[in-house]
Amino acid sequence: MRLGKVLSGGLLLAALSVTGCMNVPSEMTVAEYCANPSKANENVCRLKVEIDGQSTALADTNMRLSDAFKLTAGAQATADSAKADAAAAMARAEEAYNKDDAMVCETRTIQKTNVGSCREGYTLTSCNQTRYTFRAGGPSILREINDEQCRFNDRVLEMQVRCCGTASSVPQPEDALMEGEEAAPVETTVPEDVPEEVPAPVSP
User: Fold this and answer.
1) Class of domain 103-179
2) Cβ(174)–Cβ(106) under 8 Å?
3) Which of 55, 137, 169, 193 has its CA 20 to 30 A from that of 148?
């Protein structure tokens, strides 16, 4: 019969632990070795190979034990190579994952203020007034919004500020409720009064 050297995947790891340093007669077959009940659970007796397309336990063959050890050594070399390839693939996958910097966002709920802003590193993406009373004049007008802050015309009861950034460059996102402080009024320069010019008298 033609003996293939394809190992059964279920026992591949078991085959890796078999060594060729055992003190056994060189002409002993695997079947003879494994006939000993005390050896039946050893890996070489549980190993399977493909013979003429059929999966067969080495313990049921007349393969010399020395040949079985050589077969196992080849399997170990193949497994070591596959393990190295798997480790390299995992390293590449982790590198690709780290480069794919995810976008993270948080919502800051700020009360009793007219200015909303984000924590350091985050970019402001939206700003909405979420609470108001008609007695206080109804919704306020959003006067300003940029990457750093938003500003309403008047102090509002509550606003929600949405802030986003890349996971590697910002703190862990957390939705927070806080009471803000009203921003200082914008100073404007009032021109000084210009004295009224009195026309010079005209001679008759």
Assistant:
1) mainly beta
2) yes
3) 137
